[in-house]
Write a structure and sequence with these properties.
By secondary structure, this protein is mainly alpha-helical. It is 55% helix and 0% strand. The protein has a domain of 39 residues.
Amino acid sequence: MEIQELQDEELMTQAREWRLRALRGEKEARGMAHELEREVRRRFGNPKIDAQHSLKKVHQLGALPEGHRQRWRPW
């Protein structure tokens, strides 16, 4: 099976099936699941890493909202 020649839907299905087989304990399935998942990440990106590297919203220093400060009570 040539992984690069698989259509997107078939790639996703195969990756899911091979990962399930690996989780059930098939030793040979682990390597194939890894290769398929690597191709999925290459084509579609990795949502966990992409979310970590997304830029946060930038505010100017004077425009930052001030939170409600709780006053200290001496009693």
